Amino acid sequence: MTEPGAQELAERLAAVRARIAAAARRAGRDPSEVTLVGVTKGVPAERVVAAVEAGLAELGESYVQEAGPKIAAVNRAVSNPPRWHLVGRLQRNKAKEAVRLFQVVESVDRLELARELDRRAAAAGRRLEVLLQVNLSGERQKGGVAPEALAELLAACAALPALEVTGLMTVPAAAPEPEAARPAFAHLRALRDALRATPAGKGLRHLSMGMSGDFEVAVEEGATIVRVGTALFGPRDA
Fold first, then answer.
1. Which domain holds residue 113?
2. Distances from the Cα of 217 to the Cα of 39, 122, 192, 222, angstroms
3. How many domains does the chain have?
4. Dihedrals phi, psi of 110, to nearest 5 degrees
């Protein structure tokens, strides 16, 4: 498979941003409300550097172990390092490394993980931005807190001084048509809006939802963060 060069990456980035902007306008939203996170799982560091140099300012990785060397290489190679989001499931024993590497952890789904991240962030002298991942599809292989347990988890996390809970994240069930994800995106927005009325939920400003196949629908439903990999970097090798 031929990897996209710097010019092609810049063109893909512009095209994705144009699609985000069009979707936002359809929903009566300001496109600047939506942050594009380029998911670089499986993408070599040199291609990530080219994307950053083309203007991609936020990047996402799924695995702490893969991310470490890549983040170091990319941050060394660019004059303005990007913000890094952890978008994959996180094991508690990798919390210390996650706190070292990432500015945002989007996949907090249980209290024991939140407590470990809080402990590690406090030890590092920083406050860590986190999102709570919600499993709306009920698929066992996916991370995420059940919707009915979300309020309790949020309240517990809000009491952890080294964590800043800024929003919710979800990965909907796989489907051939983007429209199939719309109910899940609307559900996440409704959960966020309801929780904003609670003391623990006042800081919930983000909805991280939508990937390469359905990010336009997600933007129409209120996404403030979309996580796009294939549409920017092309298909990953199996």
1. 6-229
2. 18, 38, 17, 9
3. 1
4. -155, 150
